[in-house]
Amino acid sequence: MYHSLSETRHPLQPEEQEVGIDPLSSYSNKSAGDSNKNGRRTSSTLDSEGTFNSYRKEWEELFVNNNYLATIRQKGING
Fold first, then answer.
1. Polar residues composition bias: which ranges (predicted)?
2. How far apart are the C-alpha atoms of 12 and 68, rounded to whole Å?
3. 1-39, pLDDT tens digit by residue?
């Protein structure tokens, strides 16, 4: 009788480790490699920092500065 992988694996058995890149690794490993020879950052670095700052601001608004549930409730009321 044939059993699929999902049937033979215990539900509490840990899953295999995901493989991929860490999107925040560049922020935790700041180095001189972030700038070019002229001392200017590349546009992709500027774009990613802008995105990071945007997400950080949103995170602070939701979780740090305000009560998360109250914020979500108010946004739902306001549409």
1. 25-51
2. 31
3. 555 555 566 667 666 766 677 777 777 666 545 444 455
Q: How far apart are CA 71 and CA 77, in angstroms?
A: 10
- CA angle centred on 74, ends 73 and 77, rounded to 5°: 90
Query: What b/e string do you get for 35-55 counting C-beta neighbours within 10 Å, with b at 16 or more?
Result: eeeeeeeeeeeeeeeeeeeee
Which segments of 1-79 does DSSP mark as H helices, in order? 5-8, 25-28, 43-59, 68-78
Beta partners for residue 41, in sequence order? 35
pTM, rounded to two decimals: 0.29
